[in-house]
Amino acid sequence: MPIIAHELAKKQKEISVAEFFERNKQILGFDTTTRSIITTVKEGVDNALDACEEAEILPDIHIEIKHLEGNDYQIIVEDNGPGIVKRQIPHIFARLLYGSRFHSLRQSRGQQGIGISAVVLYAQLSTGHPTLVTSKIGKNLPAHQYELAIDTKKNLPEIISDQMQHWDKESGTQISLIIKGKYVKHKKQSVYEYLKSTAIVNPHAQITFIEPDGEKIIFERVSTDIPPSPMEIKPHIYGTELGTFIKMARDTKARKLTSFLRKDFSSISLDKAREIVKKSDLNFMDKPQQISREDAKRILEESQKIKLMAPPLNCLSPIGEILIKRGLKKETQEISPEFITTVQRTPQVYQGNPFLVETGIVYGGKLPQDDQVSILRFANRVPLLYQQGDCVITRAMEKTDWRRYGLQQKGGRGIPYGPTLFLIHVASTNVPFTSESKEAIASYDEIEKEIRLSLQQCARTMFRHLRKKERKSKAKDKFLLISKILPQIANKAAETLGKPPVAIDEIITQIMDILWIEDEVTYEKKEESWITKSKITLTNYMTKKQQFTLYAIKPHEAIVHQVTPQPTVVTDTYLKWHIKNLSSNAKQEICFELTGIDKGDFDDNDLYIQGINPLHVIGAEKWEGD
Amino acid sequence: MPIIAHELAKKQKEISVAEFFERNKQILGFDTTTRSIITTVKEGVDNALDACEEAEILPDIHIEIKHLEGNDYQIIVEDNGPGIVKRQIPHIFARLLYGSRFHSLRQSRGQQGIGISAVVLYAQLSTGHPTLVTSKIGKNLPAHQYELAIDTKKNLPEIISDQMQHWDKESGTQISLIIKGKYVKHKKQSVYEYLKSTAIVNPHAQITFIEPDGEKIIFERVSTDIPPSPMEIKPHIYGTELGTFIKMARDTKARKLTSFLRKDFSSISLDKAREIVKKSDLNFMDKPQQISREDAKRILEESQKIKLMAPPLNCLSPIGEILIKRGLKKETQEISPEFITTVQRTPQVYQGNPFLVETGIVYGGKLPQDDQVSILRFANRVPLLYQQGDCVITRAMEKTDWRRYGLQQKGGRGIPYGPTLFLIHVASTNVPFTSESKEAIASYDEIEKEIRLSLQQCARTMFRHLRKKERKSKAKDKFLLISKILPQIANKAAETLGKPPVAIDEIITQIMDILWIEDEVTYEKKEESWITKSKITLTNYMTKKQQFTLYAIKPHEAIVHQVTPQPTVVTDTYLKWHIKNLSSNAKQEICFELTGIDKGDFDDNDLYIQGINPLHVIGAEKWEGD
Questions:
Q1: pLDDT value at residue B277
Q2: Beta bridge partners of A233
């Protein structure tokens, strides 16, 4: 009888990574022809933005899509980045799993070394066409142009042609591909939507887009500040897996255990390194290359028990509350929203990787009242358009009880309904995507929790705003009613009794029994910049004089200019006044000016009060401490 | 000024596929420690089942999980498959992208050559332990035992030890790993659930599971029929991408264009090959290795216009309606469901890949009335436990209007509510998973449509059953009421008028005006097998004699034994009788017997009628044609 295993063995063989993805193109985001065009543009633009960011250049990106024949489309993406040196071009564009960002820990759009070569692979697979790449690295140098294909059996570049060329550009890269696709205009999942969302979270980028029908759309930059290029960091020992630790110990150049810990990990001082080594019953002179699995395990276990600093955070590049607000404002103009608020959380760590969450909420205006809310998801400044169902962002949304914040939600679970748009941005040195198409983030508890907290923080502000509006309007109604009817009753009574009419002001005050706060924000142009002027009016409709503390929240980025009266305290985030003596029926005005921000960046006062029962205050909330 | 591109170039380098997945373990299904245990068992069991299937052996699989210390668990999976030849063991278990099933087109659980080595990678990453693999390929041969690790920088096996060993087993493979994990018992997402679901769709497998607390669970096989090992097929030209076609033409051994088309693709005859070549303005003697991109494009375009046979379908291995029903019945015993129905659709093609959908519905019993329905998803006989949100199966469920089938569903969209459990199995030579963790199927239109049709077909049967029950019960109430009250009224009237009571039967018949059909299924043991006996009773409660055709549906697999009266037609799927003359108030009995199926496989008659207004029939539906 023949041995079956021998028969089976004949078929066993190696699979090249390019062959693998050629067969499984859906994993890379090329399942439908519509999505294939979006994925192609996305990978091109992500690469372009990363290149500009690394070189600290203000990005100026051109995208053009041309309809050729049948289902064939030509897609061109061009940037003004630093360019790519000649010998690297074939590897970067025509070899999967090749790149610069995989081995360095810092926030970037590309991490995997797959994206752009996946597009070249798809072009070749779907239309048989090679890809044209042109790149120039400096002013007085020629540009290089390559025609590239991928030898999928070997996963190596195949150079079809290679020539020097003149290019009227200081530096930059252009990629031109022909793919099978289907172009849709103005859909929820479209190139236009992808670019619009990209513009929101990359306010420093200028993006020009020419559609197949010739329409030209420009997404103007709203900020000329180049985001600082994120720093590269070492891994943090808290989240390091044992296997990784053993490999690092084997490969390190350090000769002593303590220097290995200090130099190959972030946030370990010499003292801490010694402490870890000692508690693990090892000697600091031990060679890291020679430690056993058990030694390594002990070191890891002991280091979890020691209090170490968090990883440094300059490896992250958040967008910032003001820039997100500005982006949202610009892109939701047609909706004329009632209210926009944004929150940036402090960085956290999951499995040793620093990450940070930023969120924004747009409320009201023309947003539909009874539809599900819209969710714009972002990872490292890249919009995520597909696989919403399995993303940690969606999960965090679904697990929040939105009924507490005034939205409709069946049973307090699931995507809520209401006139609201959410923006959520997760930034990390290593975003844990669920697949190579990078459209959904895996559900790590730490990330889910941060998103939830961030959403709640934003939602509270939104809810406060709605409640303030509602309470003000109710109090106003009451006020009008009283000031209209009470005098009439008083007059009628006096008339009936044949007595002179009484002064009614004090009685109104007695009935109202509130501290009424009005506020107003205006802007004044001064040379090239804007001054934001906030005026707060306090009126004491209570029978006694009042003494209390008022807090006005300000954006981190804004600089406090003139203030009257003199505040007691000014911090990064608020101004504070002690109001010592506001007599009954008296009014007081408080004014402050902010500079360093644009018109509209600050458009609604967020006021808090202390030392007075908040139930008697209209226009400010109870101060809950810093 | 230094050229930035030069600086950036220094960091560009190759990424090994093992390094890539070491960093992105969540893509492989190792994001949480709970899921890591499930994924490990899943990859082990999938491999074991595939091995047995290839060798046509009835699988007998043992799984044991032991809790070591802290978060460390040992996981052992053992099969009685054909074993693996010595030199292949290191490559299969300690090298990613290596295997036998990637390059062959036929249905199998593993396709990617990643799964089992991913588990070895995770063991090494999370606990630093190598993996122990023992395999034996024949009765009088020794077993080989390897201790294996993966050199992640090179993606190559590292052999820690290698020895011969005695093993009291004819042939088989055992893998033993130590991983970081968290064991949960009895949760929706657990090893137990995974194995239970696996047992449903692999009724020929015997699975023994020992939990960390020592509890031993046996999932008994319910069928001793080994499913035929699916045949390997050639790709179909309809779904072949241009790039793939060009590569195939370049690599073929055929010397003529026509023989290339005939031999390297399925379902192309010589005539068709000649027709394609001719219509593409080429010569059949042309060498396929030399055709241009344009020639290739024309051939592909022309072949889409020619009617070719579908790809051969013996590459697929469906479970079958009866076996799914049996599996569902066995695993839902505690629920005592009211009704189970299953459907197997005919195979279809997406992008050149044959695929097939099977579904089952379990209704009623102890299933919760007001919860969302449960969905059991399967691909190539493997349960899918994660990423439900982004699976084409979920999408097809959500896009079906379930209100039409008696379930609750807000707005006719989304997962419905009701006492129902769905089973959906997608089988294909190439299941398009959304990631390497193989938990969700990408949304190809063709697949989504087939799932929808299959669900609707099942749902219609369920709905018919519910309606039949409801109509019968209503008619019965009416019947009882009439036969009780009418005689009383008649007697009273006769008494009052002093006349003798009239015969009331005909009047009852006049009022009922229906054909009443009762049916009953019983079983009789005969030697080792069962005879299923179905008795149908027709009663004509109409004033005129009736003539009509009756259809009784039978399972494909069942063999028709005795039938009285003689049916007019017997097909694979139904029996048909012409009832020529059923007088008013007369009764007729129809009996048929089925063999070749088990007790309970057929437990409810599905009857149709033609030639009579179906509104006057209780117990059968209108026949809509074959």
A1: 94
A2: A105
Q: What DSSP line would sit under B484-507, residue for residue?
A: HHHHHHHHHHHHHHT-PPPP-HHH
Residue B609 to residue B620: CA distance in whole angstroms = 6
Find the closest chain A residue to B50 by CA distance. A8
Question: In this structure, what DSSP letter does residue B235 have?
Answer: P
What is the token pair recorded at B392?
Answer: 């084409």
In one letter, which amino acid is B461? T
Name, in order, each residue with C-beta under 8 angstroms of B541's C-beta and a sequence gap of 6 or more. B508, B509, B512, B513, B514, B515, B516, B585
Which residue matches tokens 């960011």?
A: A53
The DSSP secondary structure of A411-425, one letter per residue, reads GG-SS-BSSEEEEEE
Amino acid found at A315: C
Inter-chain residue contact B19 with A82, CB threshold 8 Å? no
- Residue B376 parent element (H or E): strand B374-379
Q: Which of A114, A90, A93 is nearest to A102 (CA)?
A: A114
Q: What is the pLDDT of residue A227?
A: 85
Alpha-carbon span B552 to B550, nearest angstrom: 7
Q: Answer whether the bond into residue B419 is a cis peptide, omega within 30°.
A: no
**Cα(B602)–Cα(B558) distance, rounded to whole angstroms?**
9
CA distance to partner chain B, nearest, from residue A460 (Å): 28
Strand partners for B379: B382, B426
Task: Pick from B1, B4, B36, B177 the residue to mutate for testing the A interface (most A CBs within 10 Å).
Answer: B4
Q: How confident is the model at residue A8 (pLDDT cuts 50, 70, 90)?
A: confident
Please report which confidence band the pLDDT of residue B362 belongs to, taking 50, 70 and 90 as the band edges: very high
Residues 6+ apart with CB under 8 A from A290: none
**Is A13 part of the contact surface with chain B (CB cutoff 8 Å)?**
yes
Region class of A406: left (phi > 0), else alpha (psi between -120 and 50), else beta: left
Contact assessment for residue A181 and residue A172, using Cβ atoms and an 8 Å cutoff: no
Provide, as residue numbers in chain A, all residues whose Cβ is less than 8 Å from the Cβ of B143.
Answer: none
Residue B462, token pair as written in the block: 């369920």
What confidence tens digit (pLDDT) does each residue in A556-571 have? 889 999 999 999 999 9
Cβ atoms A38, B114 nearer than 8 A: no
The CA distance from B381 to B108, in Å, is 9
- Cβ neighbours of B484 (radius 10 Å): 9
Which 3-state string (H, E, C) describes A440-477? Answer: CECCCHHHHHHHHHHHHHHHHHHHHHHHHHHHHHHHHH
ipTM summary value: 0.84
Rounded CA separation B151/B406 (Å)? 57
User: Could you give the C-alpha distances from B368 to A61, B332, B335, in angstroms and in order?
Assistant: 55, 13, 10
Look up residue B323 and give its amino acid.
Answer: L
- Are A77 and A62 in contact, with CB atoms under 8 Å apart? yes
Q: Domains in chain B, please, with CATH?
A: 17-219 (3.30.565.10), 237-305 (1.10.8.50), 337-464 (3.30.230.10), 503-622 (2.60.40.290)
**Range B361-392 burial, b when 16+ CB lie within 10 A, else e:** bbbbbebeeeeebebbbbbbbbbbbbbbbbbb
CA distance B427 to chain A (A): 16
Burial class of residue B272 in the structure, from the number of CB atoms within 10 Å of its CB (0-12 exposed, 13-18 middle, 19+ buried): buried
By three-state DSSP, how is residue B321 classified?
A: helix
This prediction's pTM:
0.85
Q: Which of B459, B220, B449, B221 is nearest to B360 (CA)?
A: B459
For A433, the closest chain B residue by CA position comes to B27
Q: Rounded to whole angstroms, how far apart are CA atoms A402 and A410?
A: 10
Instruction: Indicate if the pLDDT at residue B423 is higher than 70.
Output: yes
As given in the structure block, the two tokens for residue B18 are 């093992």
Q: How far apart are the first and last CA of chain A?
A: 81
Contacts of B503 (CB under 8 A, 6+ apart): none
